[in-house]
Design goal:
153 residues; 35% helix; single chain; alpha+beta; 5 helices
Amino acid sequence: MKKVAFQTIVFDSDMNPVVLLIDENQEFVLPLFFTPKELEPILFSLENFIPEQPETYNLLLEIIKTNNLKVKELTITDIFADRVFSVLALKKGRKEQFYNCRINDGLALAIYFKAPIYITEKVELSTYPVTSLPDDLEKELQPLIEEWKKSLN
């Protein structure tokens, strides 16, 4: 397994969000495509934003916190027919439990709890080499995030 980390969010030509995960050595990037609604939990985590109407992600977050669980890691196990399969590992004391989860919720929780994200060798086949990612990608994203937050109220 290879460790990856959230890099940024970009938008494709149709303005659909694409989350970019990059490996530790910055040799490859894994693009994950989302609908705007699927992206919301990830943006909530990045911005520490709590919407007026809680989403599933908020429920999971509260269950984890109130039960003193630790998000140990998220593993992206497979990509098949444009579906991403992932497993969230939770830990309490020495006991670990593994849960299949939607990638957007799993990523949001991993980002929020600063847990490591891994991909399997099979998923690594879906990555692309990194030639160079512009430094200003995150600057370009900020106005879009602000506009999105306004639309929630």
